[in-house]
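lol so apparently i was supposed to do this last week
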Amino acid sequence: MSTDSTDGIDGHVTEEITVTVNGEAVTAEVEPRLKLSDFLRYECDLHGVRVGCEHGVCGACTVQQGGRTVKSCLSYAVQADGAEIETVEGLASEDGTLHPIQEAFHETHALQCGFCTSGFVMATKELLEENPDPSREEIETGLADNICRCTGYQNIYEAVERAAEAMED
Amino acid sequence: MSSSQPAEADAEVESESESFTGQGLPRVEDHRILTGEAEYVHDITPENCLHMALVRSMHAHAEIVDIDTSEAEAHPDCELVLTAEDLKADYNPMPTGVGRVKIGGTGEAVELPEWSLADEKARFVGEPVALVVASSRYAAEDVADLVDVDYDTLEAVADGMKAREDEVVVHESIGTNVVDHEHIEFGDPDAAFDDADRVVEGEYSWGRISGVPLETAGVVAQYDDEADSFDIDCNIQLHTLVDETIYETLGYDADDVRVNVPADVGGSYGTKIAIHRYCCLAAMASQQLERPVKFEEDRLENLQGGDMHSSDREYEVRLAVDDDGTMRGLDVWFVDDFGAFPRYPINQVLKPLSVLTNSYEIEDVSYEYDLVLTNKTSQTAYRGFGVDPHIYALEMIVDEAAREIGTDPTEFRRRNLIRPEQMPYTLPSKNIYDSGDYPATLDRIQEIVEDERDGGLLDPEVVAAKREEGKYRGVQPSVIIEPGVSGSDWTDRQRSNRDALEERSREEVEELPEHLRAEISEDGTVRAFLATDSSGQGHQTLVSQLLADELEVLPSDIEVGYLDSVDAPTEYGSAASRMAVMLSGATVGVAEELVRNLEELAADHWSVSTDDVSYQDGSVELIDGDDSLSLAELAAIDADGDERRTRASYDYDHPATELEEFDEALTGKLPVYPTAAFGSNAPIVEVDVETGEVEILTFHTVRDCGTMLNPMIVEGQAHGGIAQGVGAALLEEFGYEANGQPQAITLFDYLLPSIENVPKIEMEHTETPSPFTETGAKGVGEGGMIDAPASIATSINAALEPLGLDEPADRIPVAPDHLRKKIRDREQ
Ligand code: FES
Ligand code: FES
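anyway here it is w/ FE2/S2 (inorganic) cluster bound
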């Protein structure tokens, strides 16, 4: 994980923060205006965090903070000081085995361009943690904050259901 | 050159199957995406990289009196500020879609240059006026804020119909907003309209919508001072075709500008064809600074002035019909709003000629359009490329005609459908439908609808009870064609002398094949290279699946990468429901060539004739001997030779260039689409007459795209297309105020369909292979978006039929406020 910053430090007000990202503590000097999404993408090199709108509608930037999903484009890195963040990069096991949610998205063709996918995977993770056996309506409510422009949503429902089954076993 | 290693393919599928083609093999692209390892263009940030931001006009129409850059330049993080003046000294304007506009009675031709930064005048909100470069994206935006532009605002025109009157002229040098017009007649429409029992008329409008990919435009440009050349990473679509626009603007040869598109692009749907402005601006800045320059478009820029809107249209349509239900003649007139500049390539007004009469047999047709400029973002392509509004307008007038002659709209449609025995069917506009049984697909969808009437969503009792609650249910089935596999020679009809087309010869037609390369690696795996870019359609999977069959190896033995613009020949690429057909044809061709090469190589090695050897299961065997050479062994032998016979490349010719039936259309620069995928839809809609809101309860569809190479991808494309069609029909619109201010500049205003808006899709398939293509595939990229809006609109009309409203769905999107107004106006 790289923590080098190219963002101008000279003449800019910065603050030191420490955030635990996918289990690793990252300490960095950041400008107070640095979005959490940009912190994760550029300071932590976690490109699975994507920005589609940067104003809180599309959900591409969804990560978990303290176990709950947040849209990382809607908060600042300084607000995450001391927090635990989990991104899509933290899901697969060390040996490369995909998390059941990732596997289910793959098997059901629930992604095309994939730009929305990490956001959907993270939203699904929270949904299934809270409700291991969601109905279609509950899936609809759980994923209503994420937009996918390519796949329609039919295969995404199926991915969630398949992941739910796999995680139950 | 970027490439990717396929993920572990499903062992289960591999061991059980004879053939991978035709199976829903999960995609090799997925693993890297799901783990966050995919590299989209926004993820590329070279060492020493600077960041560009744009100063954009907040006025729709204004003289630029002065640009004061001093404060911006004084900012400590600022590296560069450029305006049009600077560009004009060193570079060229961007190529436009209407080369020269003929003006007035004199017919004098005038140029219409578009500079990458606004020159003297701003013509739409969001038009880039200056560029700045700074140490970070945040700092660049600070610096951009400090550029002080002094404008003199002018009256603007933002409505296509109004713009035709030329009261406000967008480009004073040409003195008119109507930059192109064409009236084409097929058969004898006048006679048909005179003879028919009646003429039905309708007016329909199609709002400004677009693809709105979740990934915005992005560019990283690096100028190499020593070589005097550029390296441009960007997410442009059709990078081997529209790269021309970049070379021309920069004033460099194609060999000096390497345009590379990453293996992963976050959606395009046609819209990213027009992002060359950004590529050029970043390249220019990088040349000035001799450092890499990166640009990441933000969503606000993308929505208001990001060169990514599609066109909007006003239609006046007439259908001549006899009282017995025969369609006699069709007359389509429309205005297509280009926005501020005629962008290249543009011809969304012409592609509808390829499906001129949709699934109906109508011989006598008049087709006429005006292309107008307004003070709005310039138009680019969007999934369907102008066919979607045409099909919508046509289905609306067909419905209206059925009502006027008092016949059942489904029966009326059936009576006029092109019949299977007429296939291949030549349209009046000279395109040919390859194969299909349209009446059978209508029969099937009608059966499905009947089932819904029998205790399902359309059960008469349920429908009546719902109506009591103010919820009106309805459906109107139809059969819709998706023209596939563009050969793009016709797309510069508007840059050609149209009178001269009469004498054009077949030799002058540009051929548009698709290119594929393959080579055997030393470890015996096969590497293939695509000359096209892709944005989620699974091209890598498709090629690995088909090549595995052809070479009798496993898909996991094949790795598929991409060629950049310098390595790839100038071929056409990913657009217009084309790649399944073209890539599958190219895969078969390249494999045959490779097998021939390998057999020769082995024969030489054993010093026997090629008749004595045979390729199978990934090795060449010596017939009547017990020797064989594996792919790895062949690669090792080949490494010592002078000519590489473990490499092959192949150009699969466009199917229409092979068939003389298409010659007339090709020489006349009429759109040629040699495959006709088709399907019937029956979306069951429910309209709340209090709120005007429409819910689609279920979207029934029966689809036929010829041979299904990978059914999983085929279905995925259809789901995605239908979802975009639902957005177009009900939610999306780039609205503009009369003064040209855009009203949809965030995703709070431009509404994309979410999981709550897209209905359950009940899909069935039939497979009628195309006789014109190598594999029988027909292409599926645009279906859904082409057919869903029309089907949803006619179903809304059907649902509200009991209220006696006059065509409530006469505009797209059929937004709640529109329907509410229609319903209330009638009540008063
Ligand atoms: S990028 Fe955060 S919600 Fe769209
Ligand atoms: S897969 Fe492209 S946006 Fe969801």
